[in-house]
Amino acid sequence: MGLGPGALSRRLAARLLAQTLKQRQTLDQIFSASAELAELERRDAGFVRAMVTGAFRELGRIDDALAGLVERPVEQLDPLVLAFLRIGAVQLWRLDAPVHAAVGETVAAAKAEPGSARAAGLINAVLRRMSEDPARLDGVSATRIWPDWLWAQMKASIGPDRAAALADAQLELPALHLTALDPAATAESLEGTLLPSGSVAVPMGRVSEMEGYGEGGWWVQDAAAALPARILNAQAGEHVLDLCAAPGGKTLQLAAAGAHVTAVDRAASRLTRVHENLARTGFAGQVEVVCADARKFTTTARFDAILVDAPCSALGTLARHPEGAWIKRPQDLEGFPKLQAEILRAAMALLKPGGRLVYCVCTPLKAEGLEVVNLVLKEGLARRIPIHLKEAPGFEACATDPGDLLTLPGPGRRHDAFYIARLTPAES
Question: Which CATH superfamily, name and number, covers 225-425?
Answer without folding.
Answer: Vaccinia Virus protein VP39 (3.40.50.150)
